[in-house]
Structure formats: structure tokens, C-alpha cells
Design brief:
The protein is mainly β. It has one helix and ten strands. It has one helix at 8-22; strands at 31-32, 36-37, 45-53, 57-66, 72-79, 82-88, 95-96, 106-107, 114-123, 130-140. The strands form two sheets. Strands 1, 2, 3, 4, 7 and 8 form a six-stranded antiparallel beta sheet that branches. Strand 9 and strand 10 form a beta hairpin. The protein is elongated. Mean pLDDT is 80; it is low at 1-29.
Length: 144
């Protein structure tokens, strides 16, 4: 049986930090996927990912959490032909991407509004197979 890591506290902190970094009010800020977590590795490591979408761009934050396990964390944001993949190879306790790092991950393809899929997985090495994945669909109305 696989164990599942829920990142509600991490999600609340990441959401507050992103809103502060963007200088936006929570009621009208942007769409967010919420924090999505992988299933735990046998060593107790796991990954998290969160996507924030604005009216023209997006932030994709990928974190390696839990016990060190030697795996990287891979996140994908997809909508139709739009595809972005971000990998965190920094080891347990590290994060890459997102508003917290002070840069936009990229620009969204038109039409911006629609259903996006965020997937996060563990991966053994650059060319390894993804495993312990989780995925979530969420809607973005195209506004910021």
C-alpha cells in the first residue's frame, strides 16, 4: 500500500508567499492548482508542485520534500498543445521555480482560459521512468 503525503500547511504557506510576492489580494489574485504531492518513496521522500496562472503567464514551483531518497521531482503543466516540464534536482528540502524565485516560468498560449493538468512525479535520474505520480485538473478563466 502506498502512503500519501498531504501538503496543506506547505500549500497555505506557499500561497501566502506567492500572493505577497505578486502584491495581489487573495480574492482576485490568479488561478492556482493548489499544492499537489507525489506518493512517498520507500525512503520517505516525496515531491510537491504548484502552478499559479495569471492573465498571460504562469509560475510552476517544484519542491523535493521529506527524507533524502536520491530521486528528482518532475512536474508537468499541460493544456492542449501547451506543455511545460520543470525538474528539481537540488535534493531534499529544495525548491525551484515560481514567484518565490522572482521570475515567471513562462507565457501561456492563447486561448489562455481552459482546463489545465498539473502532474508531479518522482524520477530516478535524468532518463529514468516517472513513478509515484499524482495529477490534478483545474480551470483557469484567463484573468489575473
Amino acid at each position: 500500500m502506498r502512503s500519501r503525503i498531504f501538503a496543506t500547511v506547505v500549500g497555505a504557506a506557499a500561497s501566502a508567499a506567492a500572493l505577497t510576492a505578486l502584491g495581489a489580494a487573495p480574492a482576485s489574485a490568479y488561478s492556482s492548482s493548489g499544492v499537489l504531492a507525489t506518493y512517498a518513496s520507500t525512503a520517505g521522500g516525496y515531491g510537491t508542485a504548484r502552478a499559479f496562472l495569471t492573465s498571460d503567464g504562469y509560475f510552476l514551483r517544484v519542491c523535493d520534500q521529506g527524507n533524502p531518497d536520491g530521486y528528482r521531482v518532475v512536474a508537468r503543466l499541460v493544456k492542449g498543445s501547451f506543455y511545460d516540464q520543470t525538474q528539481n534536482v537540488g535534493g531534499s528540502g529544495s525548491c525551484v521555480g515560481g514567484a518565490e524565485d522572482g521570475y515567471t516560468s513562462g507565457w501561456l498560449d492563447s486561448p489562455i482560459a481552459g482546463t489545465y493538468t498539473l502532474t508531479v512525479c518522482l524520477r530516478n535520474g535524468a532518463g529514468g521512468m516517472d513513478f509515484a505520480c499524482d495529477s490534478r485538473k483545474f480551470y483557469h478563466d484567463g484573468s489575473s
